[in-house]
Amino acid sequence: MYTLGIDIGGTKCSVVLGKDRPEENITKTIIDKMKFETAVKEGFQAAFDDIIFAAEDILVKNKVAQGELKGIGISCGGPLDSKNGIILSPPNLPGWDNVPITKLISEHFGAPAVLQNDANACALAEWKYGAGKGTQNMIFLTFGTGMGAGLILNGALYTGACDLAGEVGHIRLNSTGPVGYG
Questions:
Q1: CATH number reported for the structural domain that contains residue 47 in this entry
Q2: Which of 92, 124, 158, 165 could link 145 by a cystine bridge, Cβ 3.0 to 4.6 Å?
Q3: Which residues of 108-118 are buried (b: 16+ CB within 10 A; e: fewer)?
Q4: Neighbours of 8 (CB within 10 A)
Q5: Degrees (nearest 5) of the Cα angle 34, 146, 16?
Q6: Which domain holds residue 16?
């Protein structure tokens, strides 16, 4: 069975295809990946269309048949309502206001989709498969268009009351650098 990963960022988007290989006792192997610029200035629909095109391209190129896609994970910078799969209004994605991204992606590809803050998704991946494997407490920091943090506390992802735990905010590190909040 295959899984699809979609990362939506203010500068770039990525799509990755993974496959379980139980015969080799491997839970996830990356089969293919694609990275492209986010069409931020063109607005939500153009960027969304690019994401759909890239995901379809990867599925077709790797001959993933209908029904073989087990699930889709979507990561994006906040603020989000990850429980309900909604991108609320990230400062690095103008016009992405109250986007029901999991519903849109799930309906298009016919597979269940989940949404998670990008730093939280990275923290979970490192905790489960990477450098944090076997730890009970760790932090994962992201430094991209914005700055974020994912927290693993007492062996579980900590998201806080409003899905904003670990969000250290958009910090302008250079006097000529981008301003996330105007």
A1: 3.30.420.40
A2: 92
A3: ebebebbbbbb
A4: 25
A5: 15
A6: 2-117
Q: Is residue 149 part of a domain?
A: no
Does the residue 40 lie in any domain?
yes
Give the C-alpha separation, 20 to 70, whole Å: 10
Q: How many domains does the chain have?
A: 1
Q: Is residue 24 part of a domain?
A: yes
φ, ψ (nearest 5 deg) of residue 124: -60, -45
pLDDT digits (tens, 9 = 90+) for 6-50: 999 989 999 999 998 666 656 678 999 999 999 999 999 999 999
- pLDDT tens readout for residues 72-116: 999 998 889 999 999 998 888 999 999 999 999 999 999 999 999
Q: Quick check: is 70 in a domain?
A: yes
SS3 content of the chain, % helix, strand, coil (to 5): 25, 35, 40
Q: Provide CB contacts within 8 A for 54, sequence distance 6+.
A: 13, 15, 34, 36
50-72 tens-digit pLDDT: 999 999 999 999 999 989 999 99
Strand partners, 148: 142
The tokens for 64 are 């993933």
